[in-house]
Every structure is written in structure tokens, then in C-alpha cells.
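HUMAN: Now follow C-alpha cell order:
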Amino acid sequence: GNPPGTNIPGEPSKDEQAKIALRELRTLGGKIRSEHQ
């Protein structure tokens, strides 16, 4: 593995990965909520 903080060319940055993960969590939560209604 690579040490933390190293940017691999072609890989999204840590900030981008965090944003994407948060967005996916939000959409998953929204789907679950809408299904329960």
C-alpha cells in the first residue's frame, strides 16, 4: 500500500473520495427513507 497522503495519478483525491462517499451515503439514506414511507 501507499503511505497516507500520497496522491496516485489517475486516482481521485482524498477530498473528492470523501465527497463522493458522503453523496452516496445521502442518496442511500434518501432511498431507504422514501421506501419506508
Notes: The helical segments are 14-36. DSSP finds one helix and no strands in the chain. The chain has a mean pLDDT of 77. The radius of gyration is 15 Å.
